[in-house]
Amino acid sequence: MLDIIDNNSMLIVEDDDALRDRLAIAMQKRGFEARTAASVAEGLAAIEQDVPGFAVIDLWLLDGSGLDVVRSLEKHDPEARAIILTGYGDIPTAVAAARIGAVDYIAKPATADEIVDVLRAPKDQVPPAPVNPISPNEARIEHIEHVFHEAGDNVSYAARLLNMHRRTLQRILKRNGGGGVRSHRD
Length: 186
What we know:
phosphoprotein, alpha/beta, Rossmann fold, Response regulator transcription factor, 7 strands, CheY-like_superfamily, 2 domains, Homeodomain-like_sf, Bact_response_regulator
């Protein structure tokens, strides 16, 4: 079914449990044999056990950088196709990802079809631009909400991580449907 590479196994390395599970199901529906890992350590162990033909790797994991997983995959099989999937995109990291073997660097949220299109594209072909790209403001709001949820829905802690005033964060979350906002004084 896959025309780029014979090995249709896929490793998904993502520390967000819900996203990882949804992505694995979506990739299985598209013909991949998906395995998952929740950390850099689990991703490295999975590659040692059985090198996948494809990988979707989150950039920032709880125990380190997904770039370490890309580097390991490239070392084990230079023909394997890996992409970095992240909500924290920046140009220097995208360049670093490409230098160590990632075929692309995709900002969250990305659809399963967008991911598959990038993974299946020939190495010398530039993937098509997204049909409905996320606006900078939407990316900012998603980043804020992600940090808020990673901070255990604690407004004070998330505000410190985001380097913004607690009340400003509360207003942003309220205005953008981040319901259930509660404040904790630490």
